[in-house]
Design a protein that fits this description.
Layout lengths: L1 H28 L9 E7 L2 E5 L14 E4 L2 E8 L6 E3 L6 E4 L3 E5 L5 E4 L4 E3 L5 E3 L4 E7 L5 E8 L8 E4 L3 E7 L10 E5 L3 E3 L11 E4 L9 E10 L2 E10 L12 E5 L3 E6 L11 E6 L8 E7 L4 E3 L15 E12 L12 E9 L1 E4 L18 E8 L2 E11 L5 E3 L3 H5 L25 E5 L2 E4 L4 E5 L2 E2 L2 E2 L3 E5 L5 H11 L16 E2 L8 E2 L2 E5 L2 E8 L5 E2 L5 E5 L4 E2 L6 E4 L5 E9 L5 E13 L4 E8 L12 E9 L5 E4 L3 E4 L10 E11 L7 E7 L2 E11 L4 E6 L4 E7 L1 E3 L7 E4 L2 E3 L8 E3 L8 E4 L1 E3 L5 H36 L1
Helix pairs in contact: 1-4
């Protein structure tokens, strides 16, 4: 029995050695397998045979030990060695290594969760991270705002080239030097349009007015009869006659005719002049005294009739007016009413050439009767204006007539051109001017003697300039109800003129008024001044507003394009040290937004320098209006030129009408701006932390397991987080091959967490954990195992020889 048991015992030794060689072979075979964990074979004795349990010491015996021998060896455990493998740097950002305890969690077939230390991951066609055998790496994903969603484990993905992201600006940093030298910003730029009229007051229609030379009061056909009896004193009397129109105006006075009578005589004038047109129904008779030379009005008679002078009518004090006109004359007429502003002039009437004569005007238009909604007065008169023979450009008031009158002009140039006479006046070619309620569609701009509508229905776009830099384009809808005040408010807002008193402790300064003939102060903003549109900028050179010829453009309702030219010109130049900086910020959608910050030297004292900053943005889109102003405040610097403080340094840009988050708010950081005395003030935005949309083009994995995407615009965002699992007894894991383990019955539940949590190791991106096989140790153990194998083989050989000897004894 002893030799037989020796054979079986040796056989267990052979089996154990074979197992160890198998394990060592597997270790050596996987010495280059990433994340491989080597194993050790643990042996245990097998059964025992007890020959004696021994005896305790007695008085007669000192005691004996047990007598036992074993019956072989068995493999008690093949224990995986989960010691840390060597970390090797990789060239792939998707390669991961675990430093410390823990396993990657991957998704096996049918959603089974498996665990692995193999960190070779790559992207599949769905941009998911998978290992070499196709299992998906699990972790926490993200929501639409790139925030980790820790509700469940999901396959991690890195959508290179497809995901886009933008970042809203939160901070803008400025640098530069705002010098205390130079002029204080106390004067604003003031611009003014040409005078604008209104079509709401009707213009006389002169198309039907008749003009011509007045008929001659011809005396050659007049007959004289001295046969009558009267009271005339003896002597020679001279007469002159003049045709008289319906308004009482005389035509050219005739040449004298004479008649001599004795004492008690009478003179009858027959066949007085007559005007076939009927415009001159009467004739005025002028006469001298006996043997006199001065003519005074004696009386009137019907044109073509007879006048009897029997001495019963005394001469009046009205001397004959024999003035005549010689030249080329043109007329204009206006509607008027005492105490009211007259209308704009009619078109030109004439010209009429006359030599030593008079000019007749008739068929004047009847002023329209104002309706309920009309704003013009009920005109009752017509003013007649005329140029001078030597001045074709200026028109002077000649007279005022009723609408149905006929007028004969006999007033000399000298009479009407003397403006020192209260009744004389030049014509106002502009006529009634605009007011705040004038409809835009009624605004007229005069070009010489032509009146044109300045605005048309449609979309008006405005692109002014401020401080020599272009403002953004803003639009205004011109409708039937749009008024001049609406237009002023629009231009004021779109030009970035700061009028609001945002900081009551530091109100926006007014401007000195250096305009000739004016005094006081100018308030920044827009208003009407004597029929012109006047805009007063904020003080400082770089706040100077300019509106050039192409600043306004209207896309009319019929698809045409009009360019209203309101003739803006500068009437006061801006003064004041200033600096400006244009830069771009980004809203939440990555939309670029232009912003300009202008700083002007507001004051300086013995202790500090104070600048005011103005912020404008043409992309500001408030709920109502078109304001481009987005903020203002003060900057203070001490005596060392160091920045002290800024007020209201957070600005907000409204983003209504587009899906961006509104308002876009960000801080202005002036900490790096100095107040040193440089030659010129300078200001520049050197940094801002927003970005335009960018495409995901790379990623990295941090030690905390976060996968951070790097976008083409430089923005980084979390794309997910790798989750690891730790087991209380990792040796109890069930190997599934392919570097995968499954939870075993003796592992305990997996403890899940991010790298670094719950005793879980960290993750190293761009690195791999190599096999922890110890080749040297395994080779030594291989020698020991082979020795063990050979030793047990010798036991079998020896037992066989002894058995053979025993059998030989039997024969």
């Amino acid at each position: 029995m002893g030799l037989t048991s020796a054979l079986t015992t040796a056989l267990t030794g052979l089996a154990a050695a074979e197992t160890q060689i198998d394990v060592i072979g597997n270790n050596l075979a996987n010495s280059q397998t990433v994340g491989f964990k080597s194993s050790n074979v643990v042996f245990a004795t097998q059964f025992l045979q007890t020959l004696s349990l021994g005896a305790a010491p007695t008085a007669n015996n000192g005691g004996t030990n047990p007598r036992q021998y074993g019956l072989g060896v068995q493999v008690a455990e093949i224990a995986a060695n989960h010691n840390q493998g060597t970390i090797e740097i990789s060239s792939s950002p998707s390669d991961l290594a675990i430093q410390g305890d823990g396993f990657f969690i991957v998704e096996g077939a049918d959603g089974e969760r498996l665990y692995s230390r193999n960190g070779i991951f790559k992207l599949n066609s769905d941009a998911e991270l998978v290992n070499s055998t196709g299992q998906r790496l699990l972790g926490y994903g993200i929501d639409e705002q790139f925030r980790l969603d820790s509700s469940s484990l999901v396959p991690l993905s890195v959508p290179l080239g497809t995901e886009s992201v933008a970042k809203a600006t939160e901070n803008v940093t400025f640098e530069g030097s705002l010098t205390p030298e130079g002029d204080l910003a106390t004067v604003s730029q003031v611009i003014e349009s040409v005078k604008l009229g209104t079509a709401q007051v009707p213009q006389p229609d002169a198309s039907g007015i008749s003009i011509g030379t007045a008929p001659l009061s011809d005396s050659t056909s007049i007959t004289t009869d001295i046969s009558g009896v009267g009271t005339l004193a003896a002597g020679t009397y001279q007469y002159r006659v003049a045709l008289v129109d319906s308004s009482g105006n005389e035509s050219t006075v005739s040449s004298p005719i004479s008649a001599t009578v004795g004492t008690g005589g009478a003179i009858s004038l027959g066949d007085l002049p007559n005007d076939p047109s009927g415009d001159y129904p009467n004739v005025n008779i002028y006469r001298t005294g006996p043997n006199g030379t001065e003519f005074f009005k004696l009386g009137s008679a019907t044109a073509g009739g007879t006048f009897n002078d029997n001495g019963s009518t005394a001469l009046s004090a009205d001397a004959v007016s024999d003035g005549t006109l010689t030249g080329n004359y043109t007329y204009m007429v206006t509607y008027s009413r005492p105490g009211e502003t007259e209308s704009r002039p009619s078109v030109l009437i004439g010209p009429q050439n006359v030599v030593n004569g008079r000019i007749t005007l008739s068929d004047f238009p009847t002023p329209p009767v104002p309706g309920v909604d009309d704003t013009f007065p009920a005109f009752t008169e017509i003013n007649i204006y005329r140029n001078l023979s030597g001045d074709q450009n200026n028109f002077y008031l000649v007279d005022t007539v009723a609408p149905g009158d006929v007028y004969t002009d006999s007033r000399s140039d000298a009479e009407i051109a003397d403006l020192t006479v209260a009744e004389n006046q030049l014509i106002d070619l502009d006529g009634p001017t605009i007011n705040s309620s004038t409809l835009l569609t009624s605004v007229l701009k005069r070009d010489g003697l032509t009146y044109q509508n300045a605005f048309e229905l449609g979309t008006l776009s405005y692109s002014g300039r401020k401080g020599g830099r272009a403002l953004g384009t803003k639009e205004f809808e011109v409708t039937d109800t749009s008024t001049i005040q609406d237009f002023i408010d629009f231009v004021e807002a779109a030009s970035g003129i700061q009028t609001l008193q945002i900081d009551s402790q530091n109100p926006i300064v007014k401007s000195e008024n250096q305009i000739a003939g004016e005094s006081g102060e100018l308030v920044p903003g827009g208003y009407i001044d004597d029929g012109t549109l006047r805009f007063v900028s904020n003080t400082g050179e770089l706040n100077a507003l300019e509106i050039d010829l192409a600043a306004f453009r209207i896309k009319t309702t019929d698809g045409g394009v009009a360019t209203p030219n309101l003739g803006f010109g500068t009437i006061q130049e801006a003064v004041g040290q200033s600096a400006a900086s244009d830069f771009i910020v980004y809203d939440s959608l990555g939309v670029p937004i232009n912003v300009r910050v202008t700083a002007t030297l507001e004051s300086r004292t013995d202790e500090q320098t104070v600048y005011r900053w103005y912020a404008d943005s043409p992309e500001n889109q408030p709920l109502s209006g078109n304001s481009v102003t987005v903020g203002t405040g003060l900057l203070r610097f001490d005596g060392n030129g160091s920045f002290i403080s800024a007020t209201n340094d957070r600005i907000a840009i409204e983003r209504n009408g587009i899906p961006s988050l509104s308002p876009l708010q960000f801080n202005l950081d002036f900490d790096l701006v100095s107040g040193l005395a440089t030659q010129n003030a300078t200001l520049a935005a050197t940094r801002q932390d927003g970005s335009e949309p960018g495409v995901l083009n790379s990623y990295v994995v941090g030690e905390d397991g976060n996968i951070r995407g790097v976008f083409s615009n430089g923005v980084t965002r979390d794309l997910g987080q790798v989750q690891l699992a730790r087991f209380a007894n990792p040796v109890g894991l069930e190997a599934r091959g392919l570097n995968l383990f499954a939870k075993g019955v003796n592992t305990g539940l997996p403890v899940q967490g991010a790298p670094g949590e719950n005793g879980i190791g960290s993750v190293i991106g761009g690195a791999l954990e190599l096999s922890n096989t110890d080749i040297g140790k395994d080779l030594i153990e291989l020698v020991l195992a082979s020795t063990q194998y050979r030793g047990n083989s010798r036991v079998i050989t020896t037992s066989q020889q002894l058995l053979d000897e025993l059998l030989n004894l039997k024969r």
